Fold this sequence. Notes:
Layout: H1 10-20, H2 37-47, E1 51-53, E2 68-69, H3 71-76, E3 81-85, E4 88-92, H4 94-104, E5 113-117, H5 121-132, E6 137-141, H6 145-159, E7 164-166, H7 171-176, E8 180-183, E9 209-212, H8 221-228, E10 232-234, H9 236-252, H10 258-271
Helix pairs in contact: 1-10, 4-5, 4-9, 9-10
Amino acid sequence: MGHPLGHSLSPIMHNAAFRSLGMDWIYVPFPVKPENLKAAVEGLRALGVEGVNVTIPHKEAVLEYIDDIHGTAALIGAVNTLKFDDGTVRGYNTDASGCLRALEEVTSVEGSSVLILGAGGAARACAFQLAEKGASDITILNRTPEKARLLAEDMADKLGFEASYGGYELIQGSVKSADILIDTTPVGMHPHTDDRPLVGAELMHEGLVVHDLVYNPQRTVLLREAERASAIPVSGIRMLLYQGVEAFRIWTGRDPPLDVMEDALKRVLNRD
Length: 272
Ligand code: ATR
């Protein structure tokens, strides 16, 4: 459920998974206007739907209609996955767990120094999840520094985690001491693939993990810079995949067919 529902890759990913497991399930887009959100959640519950993904602009507003919210999602204050369980509506944030899993494919978050660019919904999900997972320090830099400050203060209030924050002028100094860089901004997203990246190769060091949440194109301008610097690029497709994999497990209780879901995503992205 979202509004407006643009071109989403989730139906392709989940329907490929259902087909491969021979499950008689289907994932369909529901464009739901904000004023209809309550009715939509009640209707889905009444209809016996197993679950939904929730996206912009409902990720926060839907909390009001949830009976049970998963711990990290409650701290973040936003969910992207609902599970209808015998009339109980349970909310999860698999963006957060997806971000963590994408990073843990190549590194260990515990004890790491993390730099996050952007302070919107995705930054918020990643920041809370990585703080909970034991990142040693987190710096949040944003175009609008005030929003970075609000996020840092919220983390201090809810987790007792003191994150640093500021504007993009602090990028140069902050990248040097980072183990993990996460760009949550839309810079470099199709069709603006030739945007100037927020961080160039000259600021990166060997072994720095560079996670760009943009997945179209798969090899963004930031990830190309990471390759030039012998840093470790992590495509946004990894987080997209893992947020879906986790949602699939929540809805079905089954082991998601990871390869099938990944192939489905890559097929569409390579075609576009
Ligand atoms: P999401 O849900 O994907 O996190 P969002 O909440 O709209 O999306 O957040 C986008 C983030 O990218 C914001 O931090 C935004 O900065 P502002 O808070 O100043 O708006 C940042 N952003 C958007 N466009 C950007 C650009 N062209 N350059 C740098 N940062 C940008």
